[in-house]
Amino acid sequence: MALTPLDSANVIYDDQPPETLPVRGRSPLPSGRHRRPASADLPPDAPVLVLAVPGGRPDVAEEIASLTRAARTDLDVRVAPLGGSLFADVLRDLPDDRSAVVVPLITGPHSSMYRDIHDALADAGVKATVTDPLGPHPLLAEALHVRLADAGLARADRIRQFSIGAAVDGVIVATIGGAEAAGEADMTAVLLAARLAVPVIAAAVDGSPTVADAVTRLRESGAERLAVAPYLIGPELDYEQLAKLAAEAGLGCAAPLGAHSSVVRLVNLRYEIALDEEQP
Fold it and tell me: Dihedral, CA atoms, 243, 104, 270, 21, nearest 10 degrees?
């Protein structure tokens, strides 16, 4: 994937996730007492959880799968990289008497990835439920905040739980999936802005509005120290290339979300929602 050159950016870390803020999404992600029973209550023939991995690099997905298995020991979790025949091969290896819940490891809509998933399901002849993306959700805004802090682009007073000093005064939430994904990322950008108390704009690395467009808007608003917060799990694109372009443009750049605990929680919740929807 070709990334356009960026243009020049850098926030405050608040350890409290804004769980009470509104969430926009196609299906809500429940929590607390509304959650489905834990994995110990799953029947022996419960659907297999299949993590669909874009980009063909499953290392991050394997870590997410490992953390999910540790939390839910009765759940069968498989990693299925998209590309070639790998995804269909994983599906063909599922037990004959088991269905599957496919959770795409993406934060927002991505039409070509969903097309690849459904084509592979048809090719393998496997019954499966394909879930919505993991976002938008306050947990992902929290994870973005943590990744910015990890990169030294945000900081906070953890004891008194209020933000102190901004390392940057503008943030670009960079996603993949074109204009539709950037539009869906707007809610996460709003949630992140509420945490950081600085302007945050969503952009697409593979469409419009571009990261360069977001940089221009932030600078026109008076922001000078900017940072990119990759709204990505990791395998979706070449992060090293993105970080290099950001550095060349004078922007800070946090790491992708990766196997952050919030990502693992949302994978589990997507699985639970799929099970609930299968109930008669």
Answer: 30
